[in-house]
From TrEMBL:
<feature type="region of interest" description="Disordered">
    <location>
        <begin position="220"/>
        <end position="244"/>
    </location>
</feature>
<feature type="region of interest" description="Disordered">
    <location>
        <begin position="258"/>
        <end position="277"/>
    </location>
</feature>
<protein>
    <submittedName>
        <fullName>Fe-S oxidoreductase</fullName>
    </submittedName>
</protein>
Amino acid sequence: MAGQPSPIQLSQPSSASPLVCEIAGRQHSIRIPADATDAVSAQFDDFAIPDWLAGAASSRPIRVAPAAAALTELARAHPHWSRDRLILESLQTAMLSAWPTQGMIAVNGICIEYRERAYLFSSLPTARAERHALLWRQYLGDVVRLVGDGWIALHVTRSGRSSYVTASGTPWRGRRGWSRNVTVPLDGWCFVHDAAGAGASGSPDAEPASAAMTITAGASVRGTSDKPSAPTAPHAPVARSASTPAIRASGVTAAPASASIPAANDHPSSPAVPSPVFAGQASFAPASGASTAPAPQVDRLNPSAMVDEAVRFMHMPATATGVGHALSLLDKVLLLTPTYRFIGGEREPDAAASFAELTGESFDDCREPFVLPLILGPHTWD
């Protein structure tokens, strides 16, 4: 229409012209097969950059393309998947596997931002961590914003003589619309466990051997169980007041990570297939505070005690070189980021306990005076 500026033209995906995106502060050159539908390129809509910005970065872009062998293997393993789904899965594996050599790793969970600081929650199943993050949003209001859900990019950043970890949203979101193209300093990584899964031995979410789930390095599959195996250094549960969560350091050294990794990949499906869990206008309301519910437990642990648990939520490349880079970066992330284990439920005291411990602020002082149900969907975090 005359008098109106023309819209920004983005690089169009084709066999000749790759789609250029900026993800976690790095440019990516993504080659999408010509037979893919618009649903594939729509996965990267929030991360695509204008043509005139392409190539302006100081470092070379990370090149990502679906490997023909990977597509063939996926099609053989999942004959019911659509062509778009196969392409997206192949692109995801190629991108996440390339990151460790570029100084980044991908971990599974939901990451939220509170006052310019990011807090990452991981759990099996992922929905448990999502519900806990939603408690923060429910009781603290719009000051809690989403960074990303699904695969989160972690990067060790140097500032002068000091280093810190940043968290970024990625296109590989677990829920439609649950990701932002932002990078925020990470101030805590919390592993969420259900209080009902903590047995008398204190091993949160201990699972029977028959329900164990493992994946090979670089694979992207759904596990057969929603519970992780028992942590390396279990702790007996101790009842604590929600208003005064305690910090307990652990000096137990975790066993080295094995080549067989329990699955944490609630990987995103094709954009054309909405998640049945959050489809429609379902609402989220925290559980009522039953008097018999155990008090939440929040422990800040020594990084050496969290290696095994952190590896469960990490994407492992298929090559030995990639695995070496990934584990080296994970060591740095754990040394620079406070790590916590949360055992509790889905009530207001649980949100109060984790909030006070992770942020050091008073939950009562920051809590919203009126708490309303959340509408779950693509715009939950708007």
